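Researcher: Sequence of non-specific serine/threonine protein kinase follows. Predict its structure.
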Amino acid sequence: MPTRFTYEELKTATENFSKKLGQGGFGSVFEGTLEDDTKIAVKRLDGLGQVNKSFLAEVESIGSIHHVNLVRLGGFCAWRSQRFLVYDFMSSGSLDRWIYHGNREHILEWQCRKKIILDIAKGLAYLHEDCMQKIIHLDIKPQNILLDNDFNAKVSDFGLSKLIDRDQSHVMTRMRGTPGYMAPEWLSSVITEKVDVYSFGIVLLEILCGRRNFDRSQPEESWHLLGVFQQCWEQGTLLDIVDKYSEYMQTHGSEVVEMMKVAAWCLQTNYTRRPSMSSVVMVLEGRMNVESNLDYNFTDPRLQNTAVEHKKDLTPLLDSILSGPR
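Model: Prediction complete. Tokens:
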């Protein structure tokens, strides 16, 4: 179980919370060092109400589980109205800083991207299938995927997650998540782990194409990556959307296009046609084939409102999830 830290211990470790790594709607993250020289990231959640729910959800969901592809929750602290979560420090920060054109330090080669994709899939498969209770993350996006010094990927930020018993097929919950990564069935509020599979499909497509799923810097007809993906599939021009700023990706274009089929499988509008994350892992490891006869009609009734939704996000985008320097 996570260690219960005192406020003074965290204050000392972070040099009075002086090295801020990021800030979001629920609080901030600070770099720190424990007495044994272990580097940590301390998330400070300010306020009450929703923040307390986020704190409890995170401690409850990942406090007692360990997996190489999940960010480890090492400890927590409750002090007055503030709540603190203590994580392993992830030196390479979040995935979004490495995959978007114009927002990355250097171009990730294809083998590195493949490893990151497999790591994310393994982390989600563990949450969905190998824990005593099924854990649905509900907010999978590049900002919530953290990378260590060797670019091993770990799923982070369980503040919106839901735990459900293994004999439950679905859960009823209010709409939560980040527009652009939310599955169509959120409109019905009947939610399964397949919402994470859909979000994974969006993240996978972003990694392969090197762009955001909604990007106003593109021509208006190309704002929505899903729409571009659907059109290129129909026209047989998927090579055109492979990350054009990466020679590595262009060189392996045919393999990247094959990987896009995995994304398409995960993005099926009918959630019952999406694979389990363990099936995705088997496909990525070459032990299984992608389902045939996929539906490439990704028309989502919310697409018309996406531009507005991206301005008034349904939940605060937590920069506090970033436990690496920006």
